[in-house]
Write a structure and sequence with these properties.
By secondary structure, this protein is α+β, with helices and mostly antiparallel strands. It folds into 2 domains: about 1-80 and about 230-235, 2-Layer Sandwich (uncharacterized conserved protein from methanopyrus kandleri fold like); about 90-200, Gcn5-related N-acetyltransferase (GNAT) (Aminopeptidase, 3-Layer(aba) Sandwich). The protein has 8 helices and 10 strands. The protein has helices at about 1-10, 35-50, 60-65, 70-75, 105-115, 120-135, 185-200, 215-220, and strands spanning about 15, 20-25, 55-60, 75-85, 100, 145-150, 150-160, 165-175, 205-210, 225-235. α1 (about 1-10) runs antiparallel to α2 (about 35-50). The radius of gyration is 18 Å and the shape is globular.
C-alpha cells in the first residue's frame, strides 16, 4: 500500500493513512494523469480488501473524476465539498474570545466532543483515535475549546497538514448545541486561524465544508477566506467489514 501511496503522491494525490482508513485528495484538475490515478486507485482498493483498513475516502474535482472510469465504478459518491483558502502572512489579531487546550485523551474532552458532535462517547473516542493515528506529533496540542462566559461552547482542532508547505487545516470544528445559532461560530473559526498562524507557523489555511453548509461557508468568508474550488467526495468500503 505504501508504494502505491508514494506513486500517487508523485502525480499530485495527497494522502493520509490511519489504522482504519485512507484519505486521498487532489485539488487541481490534472487530467493528464487521470488514467494513471485511476489505475493506482484501483490497485489501492484491491489492497484495502486484503488489509485491515475499512474505508478509502477520495476527493477530487468533477472534471478529473469524469476521466476515471474505475473510480466511478468502484467508489460511491457521497456529495460535494467546497474548499476555501487564506494566506496567513498577514497578522491575525488575537480573537476576542477565551480558549484553552484540553488533553485529547481526558474524559472531559471525549464527553464534550460527544455532546458537540451529537455522537456517542465511543464514536468520539474512535474519532480522536483516528486523529492521533493520522497526526501523532500534533494531536496532543489540537483540542482547542472556546469559552463563552466561562462555559465550554465549541471545539476546533487546528493542525498542519503533513507533506505540505506549512498548510494549516482544521481536523474538525463545531459549536456545542447549547450555543448554536448565536453567531459565535466566527469566533471559534478565528481561534483556529490564530493558533495556526501563531503556534503552528502556518503559511496558508485550507478549509473544506459540504456544499450545502451555508453557515460554515459564510464563516470562512467572513474570516477572510476565498473560495478555491468544488470537489466530489467518494467512498469505498472494505468488502470484508
Amino acid at each position: 500500500m505504501d508504494a502505491l501511496l508514494r506513486q500517487l503522491h508523485q502525480i499530485g494525490v495527497h494522502s493520509i493513512k490511519s489504522n482504519t482508513a485512507v484519505m486521498l485528495e487532489i485539488m487541481e484538475t490534472k487530467v493528464q494523469h487521470a488514467e494513471e490515478i485511476d489505475r493506482l486507485i484501483d490497485s489501492l482498493l484491491n489492497t484495502i480488501n486484503e488489509g485491515t483498513q475499512k474505508t478509502v475516502i477520495f476527493q477530487c474535482p468533477a472534471h478529473l473524476l469524469q476521466k476515471m472510469d474505475t473510480v466511478q465504478t468502484r467508489m460511491i459518491v457521497e456529495g460535494q465539498r467546497v474548499n476555501y483558502t487564506r494566506s496567513l502572512k498577514e497578522t491575525i489579531d488575537n480573537p476576542a474570545a477565551s480558549f484553552d487546550i484540553w488533553p485529547v485523551s481526558e474524559k472531559k474532552s471525549i464527553s464534550f466532543l460527544s455532546e458537540t458532535m451529537g455522537r456517542s462517547e465511543q464514536e468520539a473516542m474512535a474519532f480522536l483515535q483516528s486523529m492521533k493515528e493520522e497526526l501523532p506529533s500534533q494531536a496532543d496540542y489540537m483540542f482547542t475549546v472556546y469559552y463563552v462566559e466561562d462555559k465550554p461552547a465549541g471545539v476546533v482542532l487546528p493542525h498542519l497538514e503533513p507533506d505540505t508547505d506549512r498548510e494549516g487545516r482544521m481536523f474538525w470544528i463545531g459549536m456545542h448545541p447549547d450555543f448554536i445559532g448565536k453567531g459565535l461560530g466566527k469566533n471559534l473559526h478565528l481561534i483556529g486561524l490564530h493558533r495556526l498562524q501563531k503556534e503552528w507557523k502556518a503559511k496558508t489555511y485550507l478549509g473544506s465544508t459540504e456544499i450545502n453548509n451555508v453557515p460554515m461557508r459564510n464563516i470562512m468568508v467572513s474570516n477572510g477566506c476565498a473560495e478555491r474550488n468544488t470537489v466530489t467526495s467518494l467512498k469505498y468500503a472494505n468488502k470484508n467489514t
